Amino acid sequence: MKTGARALGLAESYVGEGGRSTLAGAVVRADRVVDDFRFSSCAVGGSDATTAAIDVWNGLDRPDVRYVLVAGVALAWYNVLDVDRLHDATGRPVLAVSFESSDGLEDAIRREFDDAAAAERLARYRALPERHAVPVNDDTVYVRSVGCDEPARIVQAFTPEGGRPDPLRVAREAARAADRYRRNPEA
């Protein structure tokens, strides 16, 4: 992959105040250069994570971004992402990356939500593409992808060290910093 290839990393942070989670988008090149940031928010326990992700994409207006990487599929307490809709809106391959092995979220969704809210989340969750283990350096990540023939190569190209792709690492830090600022803008 060329060093100037760009990916948008999307990650969220919630500090436990109010009902909104910060969604940060970070444009990062394969050579680790950070190009841009954009922020949005989504409801904790809501169903608007996909809309917030699309808002970040549209606000950036970066046709040079080739890939969209998202930290997980259940942002902001089971606000389940629709990766097909995100792919359609961006016209880019979408890779949802998680960092732990899991038996899935179905039982937790059923436990946490009433029938109608659970049914909506379960339908979106069940529509997700299959998750595949991808080795990166000395770690393993789990990737669901849409519009991508070689997700392992992309994840590995954007993970020069450690086990977290740089666009997701930078987006997570940006979301956390935005939350710290919201809590205490005078600090």
From TrEMBL:
<protein>
    <recommendedName>
        <fullName>UPF0215 protein GCM10009021_11210</fullName>
    </recommendedName>
</protein>
<feature type="region of interest" description="Disordered">
    <location>
        <begin position="159"/>
        <end position="187"/>
    </location>
</feature>
<dbReference type="InterPro" id="IPR002802">
    <property type="entry name" value="Endo_dU"/>
</dbReference>
<comment type="similarity">
    <text>Belongs to the UPF0215 family.</text>
</comment>
<feature type="compositionally biased region" description="Basic and acidic residues">
    <location>
        <begin position="163"/>
        <end position="187"/>
    </location>
</feature>
<dbReference type="Pfam" id="PF01949">
    <property type="entry name" value="Endo_dU"/>
</dbReference>
